[in-house]
Design goal:
The protein has a 6-stranded parallel sheet with strand order 2-1-3-4-5-6, with helices on both faces. A 6-stranded parallel sheet has the order 7-10-11-12-13-14. Strands 8-9 form a two-stranded antiparallel sheet. The radius of gyration is 21 Å and the shape is globular. The mean pLDDT is about 95. By secondary structure, it is an alpha/beta fold. The chain has 13 helices and 14 strands.
Length: about 350
Amino acid sequence: MEKEIKFLLINPTSPLWRVSAKQKYRNSRFFRFSMLPSLYVAASMPSFVKTEIIDEDVEPIDFNTDAELIGISFMTYNAPRAYEIADRFRAMGKTVIFGGFHPTFMKEEAIAHADAICIGEAEYNVPEMIRDYVHGKLRPFYDNGLVDLADVPMVDRSMLDRKSYVSVNAVQATRGCNHHCQFCSVAAFSRYKIRKRPVEKVVEEIKTLGKHVLFMDDNITLDKEYARELFTAMIPLKKKWFSQTEITIANDEELLRLAKDSGCSGVFIGFESVSQESLGSWNKHVNRKKDYLELVSRLHQAGIGIFAAFVFGSDEDGPEIFGNTLDFLMEANIEVLQSSRMTPFPGTPLFEKMDREGRILD
């Protein structure tokens, strides 16, 4: 029997949101999809590993922890904080492993601050990493490829403080996206492939959750036949659900009806721009600006709210892009807006292009 290992898995965050030891807990509740991957890491651990998850959005890190193994999962925006945490723990003699988008795409940079890096998805990497750690043979990099979603373990949501989040009822039916949008690191992380979890397994998990369910899918309707099967199976469950999808869901009358009947209350959609020139430069060919108003109207008629994402700052954008976007938002009666600056994230075609052009300065 293996000796118990204490593993602390940390989700670092920006100084804007970080909870201090004095402040301890925030009064607000966070809307986060990103804790589900941490739960999958914990569920993939061998039985002799005792995992604790710390989210800096809701509680501070205890640097006096008796955990001997430290995991840090992070994206590009919180990489400096991840390196700061890792360096401090390693100075104390702790073993540190990294996972997530940034260390996957920038492994040579990241390994300077860690003992090992989980490249890509965790479920197949984690057991091997723990086995090597136990035998003193931890390697710098682990990459066992994409996960068959039939193998994904059930997660223990009791590891999260329900009072700290809008909902911990996040679930995943599909992973990945086969579109090649220039700025998207999500599709790159999944190597431009979509995988589907068996519908019966998804339904069994949803049955254990509350009334409201968040699908942490990159594009839940990308495989329309799969989506039809899933939505049909969900109708008897009488849930209210939310997910990410593309605007073309509204082109398929049957699919839209099934989404409504299965309890779809809202969708996050990457409109990205009201400039067709910008959409073309980003290889976002699935979006056609001239169709936006009609497709939004169909979603609203089905009782589905829209969380619209827009990106500003393409080379094709001029000052008029802001007014044009606002005009569309008002005319379409969009419920929620997420606006972002175009950012060349590591791992994306946009990063490679701008790096070749000498435009990555920091």
